[in-house]
Amino acid sequence: MTDAATPEPLLRVRGLTKHFPARGGRRRSGPVRAVDGLDFEVRAGETLGLVGESGCGKTTTGRLLVRLLEPTGGSIEFAGRDITHAGRRKLRPLRPDLQIIFQDPYASLNPRHTVGRIIAMPLQVNGITPAGGRKARVRELMELVGLNPEHYDRYPHEFSGGQRQRIGIARALAPGPRLVVADEPVSALDVSIQAQVVNLLRDLQRELGLAFVFIAHDLAVVRHFCQRVAVMYLGRIVEIGARDDIYERPRHPYTRALLSAVPEVTRSGPADRIRLTGDVPSALDPPSGCRFRTRCPKARDRCSVEEPALTRRDGADQAIACHYPEPEPGAVG
Amino acid sequence: MDPYLRVEDLRVSFNTTDGVVRAVDGLSFSVERGRTLGVVGESGSGKSVTSLAILGLHDPRRATVTGGITVGGRQLIGRPESEVRRLRGRDAAMIFQDPLSALHPYYPVGRQIAEAYRVHHRGAGRAETRRRVIELLDRVGIPQPGRRYDQYPHEFSGGMRQRVMIAMALVNDPDLLIADEPTTALDVTVQAQILELLADLQAESGTAIVLITHDLGVVSQVADEVLVMYAGRAVEQGTVEQVLLRPQHPYTWGLLSSVPSLRGDAEADLRPIPGNPPSLIDVPAGCAFHPRCRYAEHTAGRCGTELPELRAAGTAGHRVACHLRTEERARRYAEDVARVGVAR
Amino acid sequence: MSERAERQDRRLAGRSPGQLAWLRLRRDRTALVSGAVLTLFVLVACGASLIELAYGIDPRDQFQGKLDGSGMPLGYAGGISTEHFFGLEPGLGRDIFIRLVHGLRWSLVIALAAAVLTAVIGVVLGTLAGYLGGWLDAVVSWITDLTLAMPFLVVALALTPTVTLRFYGQRDAVPPAFGIAVLIAIFAVFGWTSTARLVRGQVIALREREFVEAARASGAGLGHMLFRQLLPNIWAPILVSFSLAVPQFITGEAALSFIGVGLGEEIPSFGRMIYQSLEYLQTDPAFVFFPGVTIFALVFAFNLFGDALRDALDPKSVR
Question: Which of A83, A129, A183, C276 is least surrounded, with the fewest CB atoms within 10 Å of its CB?
Answer without folding.
Answer: A129
